[in-house]
Amino acid sequence: MISLRIQRADFEAPWRELGLRPDGRWGRWWQVTIAVAGLLILLPVSLLVALAIKLTSRGPILYRGSRIGRDLRPFTIYKFRTLLVDAEGRIGARLLSPDEPLYTPVGRFLKRSKLDEIPQLLNVLRGDMNLVGPRPIRPIFLATSTRDIANYTARFVVRPGMTGLAQLRGGYFTHPRDKLRYDILYIRNRSFWLDFRLVAATFVKLLNRWLTLGVVLGLMFLCASFAPALFKEPFEVAVGGFNLSPFEALGLLLAVTTLVRQIPAHRLYLYRTPTNRPMVGFLLFSVLAGVFGGDLVPRLRDVAYFSASGFLLVFLLVSGEVNDRFVVRATRVVALAAVAVSLLGILEIAVQTHPSAGGALRITSTLGSPIVLAAYLVLGVPLVLVELTAAERREERDFWLICATLVIVAVVLTQSRTGLFALWITGSVFTWRASRRTFRVFAGGCLVLVSLLVVTGSLRLSPGAIGAEWARRVSLTGATLSSEVRSHHALVGPEPGKGALSIVMVEGPGERAPHRAQNANMHLTLMLRAGLVGWALMMWVIGAALAAIYQGSRRVQDERLALVLWAIFSSGLGFLVSMANFNAFYNPPVQILFWGLLGIGMAIVTHLNGRRPTFNVIYRFGPGE
Q1: How many CB atoms lie within 10 A of CB 98?
Q2: What pLDDT, in 10s, does the model give residues 13-72?
Q3: 3-state secondary structure of 270
Q4: Virtual torsion, Cα 134, 139, 141, 142, nearest 10 deg
Q5: Looking at the structure, do residues 171 and 301 belong to the same domain, yes or no?
Q6: Looking at residue 48, what is its pLDDT?
Q7: Which has the minimum average pLDDT: 317-321, 427-431, 596-600?
Q8: CA distance 484 to 492
Q9: Domain count, the chain
Q10: In 3D, which of 514, 547, 549, 542 has the Cα closest to residue 526?
Q11: Cα 575 from Cα 381, distance rounded (Å)
Q12: Nearest to 190 by CA among 12, 35, 19, 17
């Protein structure tokens, strides 16, 4: 306290000599307004952060520390606790390095994302801090900085801030002397407009830190999996012939923004991958078919849709900063999402009171359709099996064994015949590589189970039900192909731009006139939209990706990455089967999951195969021309 009194008696001279103005009550109204709004908006995030801190470490949720504020008066600063309880005493008079073992399990993430500073909005409300100003310092640094740095006390003429010029231009380890230059420059020129720009710049900087490609795609995938209504009515808006939901538009905008941020200075480039040519071929074919066929606008709608909802995801992931840690996290999210969706579906049985047609319950979970749920889970099963295979501890193996059982049971409870066949294909292909013994158990067990279900007629697998379904599919396929053959647009598609709604005239046995039937087969729908040539080009895109992923699984040195690639290859084969059961490319959850997995696989093959990736420079600009 004696040293503080001496400094307070002397600290006015520096800021008077430098021509600085005291803080006073300037600009408090808008800062208090923003602080209140920020606390309300960030309340859900704050509750999640508080819960994470409480569950992962002992001690209080909030850190209360002493800091030096305006006029050298100490005040109590509030933060979410990121360090162990006794860490500050052990740190002493030094800065904390990022690799020290004093952080809590979630502390490094909170510190890196700046979420730990949310409670400082309370300091703004109390009048201890401003939104913008010099960063508050710990009392232990005050004496040393005042002694070694001329005019250091001039920075205390205003309230400290949550952000500021020194924080944006410098960093945590910037020398105090350099920080002081920024602080004096700010105090000399401060105004409402300068503060507003610094707050906006801080917000953009945080967005750049938070909105990585993985976060954007992860949020889109989770929202599509657990809140698919966000992608549908009543949120949809007609834009250029599309029914576009605000969430889809926001996700597309964020994805494009993250892609632009990753483009290096002075050039736009495209990595060389096996999918580039077939994608370009599909797009060029669609445009040329529209030019010569006189239906360019609907063709362009198809081009825009397939590019934005499928090809762009692959391009984003291949162009992103992909490493083995990103791959492990992304595939684990997919596995856990499949488990969560399965568990929600199984819980339906406990609350559902009216059985569906046929007297048996068919689960739909969050996706609203048992057929879509089956296709979604078939894509996720191999990723769950990857976690089971890679588990090192017994507890992990037991956990993922339960998870794998839940997902497989959920596929069975969808009562989707095509889904069961796709599950058998996917699981058999994956287990063939992982373990031959597991392959025999899985493939043989599935065949025995299905045989029993067919004999007993359970789960819509009676011989009569299977025969009727087969006859329906044959007649629908025949009607679709014959309508194309009769049309002069057979090769290019007679119905471009019509989206998922596909109606075909079918002649049933014993019926006098054909009747309208909905085509729920993506292969056939694609033929109607883009013709036999367009369907073949799309199969080339998928086939080229799966072939590259298959070859990559044999070349990648890392065992976990090789297993992930084989899982994606297995998922892709199962998806090709699932496509025959619904219009998969027009369903957001399945669309995002499928193309996202292909993108992850192509990114591993491109960046993590031990070879330097090659690319083509599309455009050079700026000083590098």
Answers
A1: 10
A2: 566 666 676 666 656 788 888 889 889 888 888 898 898 888 888 888 998 888 988 888
A3: strand
A4: 70
A5: no
A6: 85
A7: 317-321
A8: 9
A9: 2
A10: 542
A11: 12
A12: 19
CA distances from 349 to 337, 341, 367, 503 (A): 19, 14, 15, 33
Contact, 500 vs 524, CB < 8 A? no
Amino acid at 521: N
Within 10 angstroms of residue 25's Cβ, the number of other Cβ atoms is 7
CA dist list (Å): 561 to 324, 600, 602, 609: 7, 11, 12, 9
Pairing of strands 74-80, 130-132: unpaired
- Whether residue 273 sits in one domain with residue 142: no
b/e map 225-264, b = 16+ CB within 10 Å: bbebebbeeeeeeeeeebebbebbeebbebbeebbeeeee
CA distance 89 to 72: 22
Report for 259-268, 286-295, 444-453: range of highest mean pLDDT: 286-295
Closest CA to 221 of 87, 107, 366: 366
State the first-to-last Cα distance of the chain, in angstroms, to the nearest integer: 62
Token pair, residue 7, equals 């400094």
Domain boundary among 184, 210, 236: 210
Q: Locate tokens 């500021």: which residue? A: 164
- The closest of 255, 299, 311, 217 to 542, measured between CA atoms, is 311
pLDDT tens digits, one per residue of 147-186: 888 888 888 888 898 888 887 876 655 777 888 888 888 8
Tokens of 325: 């840690």
Which residue from 220, 211, 213 is spatially nearest to 246, judged by alpha carbons? 220
Same domain membership, residue 280 and residue 142: no
Please count the other Cβ atoms lying within 10 Å of the Cβ belonging to residue 469.
14
pTM score: 0.74
Task: Please state, in angstroms and as integers, the Cα–Cα distance from residue 332 to each residue in 21, 321, 370, 500, 603, following that order.
Answer: 55, 18, 23, 31, 17
> What does the alpha-carbon distance between residue 549 and residue 567 come to, in Å, rounded to a whole number?
10
> Which residue, 369, 449, 422, 455, is CA-closest to 574?
422
In the DSSP assignment, the letter for residue 520 is -
- Same domain? For 353 and 470 the reply is yes
Contact 290, 296 (CB under 8 A): yes
> How many other CB atoms are found less than 10 A from the CB of residue 617?
11
Torsion sign across C-alpha atoms 251, 214, 550, 370: negative
Alpha helix ranges (H) inside 457-558:
463-486, 522-555
SS3 assignment, position 130: strand
Q: Are residues 202 and 271 in the same domain?
A: no
CA 316 – CA 213 distance, rounded (Å): 8
Distance, in Å, from the CA atom of 456 to the CA atom of 459, rounded to the nearest integer, reads 9
Closest-CA residue to 590 (of 338, 269, 416): 338
User: ∠475-480-481 over CA atoms, to 5°?
Assistant: 100
Residue with tokens 């000399």: 188
155 and 287 inside one domain: no
Distance in angstroms (rounded) separating the CA atoms of residues 501 and 292: 25
Contact predicate 341/376, CB 8 Å: yes
Please return the burial class of 389, using the count of CB atoms within 10 Å of its CB with bins 0-12, 13-18 and 19+: buried
For residue 597, give the nearest of 285, 303, 386 by alpha carbon. 386
Q: Does 323 lie in the same domain as 193?
A: no
Neighbours of 4 (CB within 10 A): 16
Identify whether 231 is part of a domain: no
Closest CA to 599 of 322, 329, 376, 386: 322
